[in-house]
Predict the 3D structure of the following.
Amino acid sequence: MPHIVCCVKQVPDPEAPASQFKVDEAAKKVLPIPGIQPVPSQFDTIGVEAALRVKDKVADTTITILSLGPDAYRDTIKHCLAMGADEGVHINDPALNEADHWATAEILAAAIKKIGPVDLIICGRQAVDWDMGVVGSTLAELMGFPVITIVKEVQMEGGKVTAERVLLDGFETVEAPTPCVVTVSNELGEPRYPQLRQIMQAARKEVVTMTGSDLGIDGAKNRINLEALFVPETAVDTEFIEADSAKEAGEQLAVRLREVKLI
Amino acid sequence: MPSGVLVFGEAVEGGGELAPVTGELLGAAKSLGGPVTCVLLGAGVEDLAKECGAFGADKVIVVDDEVLKDYQGDAYVHVGERICKEADPSVVLFGQTAIGRDMAPRLAARMGTAVAMDCVELSLDGEKLQASRSCYGGSARARYTINGMPQMATLRAKVFDPPERDDSRQAEVAKQPADVSADVIRTRIVSRRKEEVEGVRLEDAPVVVSGGRGLGGPEGFQPLEELAEILGGAVGATRAVCDMGWYPVAAQVGLTGKVVTPDLYIAVGISGASQHMAGISQVKNIVAINKDSDANIFQAARFGVVGDWKEVVPAFMEKVRELKAE
Ligand SMILES: Cc1cc2nc3c(=O)[nH]c(=O)nc-3n(C[C@H](O)[C@H](O)[C@H](O)COP(=O)(O)OP(=O)(O)OC[C@H]3O[C@@H](n4cnc5c(N)ncnc54)[C@H](O)[C@@H]3O)c2cc1C
Ligand SMILES: Nc1ncnc2c1ncn2[C@@H]1O[C@H](COP(=O)(O)O)[C@@H](O)[C@H]1O
């Protein structure tokens, strides 16, 4: 029975209006926007979609959702279960809340070893909060597994994973023996949206919780320190081209760009 | 004591020429002070060592071997790890390229250290590397220090200035064998396909005309292509339109697409989401054509036209043609 673990994180909604984005510089934290709920990190639900597409072909595949984070992450795990994943594992321990990307990878690796044999681990190419993009590869190195990063298609068959990587100027098909890690990108396609029936089923499903001590980990061993966090100044003075009609504005734009020697 | 800066340079695909990112990496490394070593991995890259010297490398380590012809993570990380351990640098730099974004995190894991990805600013505070990078889709900027050694970072393309090329400068060149045994390589590249772009390459284009969802459909890109051709530029796109299949993924500009630095960037029907702006943060002359005067793109635009692109663009194009013909 093939087993896929999808690592998912919860993040502030990246589609929230830019004007409402604020940080607390002293605390070096992003402030939650009132009335806007956190969401599953976009690439991570795409990872769940990739796993579900494997399961669509090989029905006895088990998909486990694995997430490290505080209580609120439960909603993200439930969302992924409602998408069609089978099991949920929530590492929830206040002592681990400040884990950096490397400590996170170590904790996830310990959990995966505890969960049992795995054929494929799927991560997002980057979590859409810090946009770092290191946990998937780090996890692979810690597990001693091969890794295929930033892919738009994943197939698993006969002890082999075939994935199509997105390069900057094209695509590359890569094969790896299982167990392995892949990180997925948005080119894979939209994640499926849970049906009401699935949401209700998922609500009843039990999520296994783990703490650091279950994993023999007594705190996050961080490798980086966040020294400062701020919103960079970007606003420039815009010269709006005013004219009686859109057509005239277009013409004047050309004239203006010629004047400043940009065309 | 770890010391000096080690830089992983790149050749353009097929060898023969240094990729521009190599100069940028050497420029950033120089600005930190201390000796700079440039690593070149590939097949047919030996002749490029001289050029690394001209761009400021004190030493060049070349591993020129067929096994490194195409980037294959297992092989590259294996060789990179060995070089890193022997050289014992205090700082290691990569480009945020197809290679760097795959290789740097894996190398960091093997070295037991951390890597700050996609940095836009670097400095040394004593021995401590201060690495700044954008996060939250470009909405925020974070500065990090790294506890372990070497302190690693990947650098966003086109942000750091390459040093003036000086062909009289000579670097010490050390050749090393690849020594990659078959059991190191676990993944196999089955095939590669390029997404061919006609005309000027997006990354090198002096003018970029980009389209977003406001174009209303793939056919909206036709006039933009025409405009780009008149201006000697290339066409870019937002992720929204690439995801919908209106335009090839290779044209995507932004956080998860390409970083471009044209003299002129014309954004048509683009809202200006932070993730898109992340790809044009170095562009000084942004022109925005959008029917919504509150669109975020105007925050960064030097020139703005509020209006329907279907009316603005044809008139603009006609006038540009006329002015160009004068
Ligand atoms: C993790 C992550 C990574 C991302 N990476 C990228 C990336 O690399 N690159 C990227 O581009 N995006 C990226 N995005 C997506 C980004 O958040 C936005 O969704 C996307 O850039 C919006 O594209 P758009 O401007 O084309 O569409 P929209 O936001 O829908 O904007 C369309 C604009 O067109 C205007 N318009 C409509 N009709 C007309 C008309 N007739 N004439 C003139 N104007 C008109 C509207 O006023 C609007 O402003 C990323 C998102 C996430 C979460
Ligand atoms: N706290 C977490 N819990 C579960 N998975 C995570 C967590 N943090 C990161 N990941 C996974 O690692 C990927 C890359 O994260 P990052 O390296 O932080 O950008 C994410 O897309 C997730 O798949």
Q: What stands out?
A: DSSP finds eight helices and 15 strands in chain B. The longest strand of chain B covers residues 115-125. Chain B touches chain A through 90 residues (CB under 8 Å). Residues 228 and 262 of chain B are 12 Å apart (CA to CA).
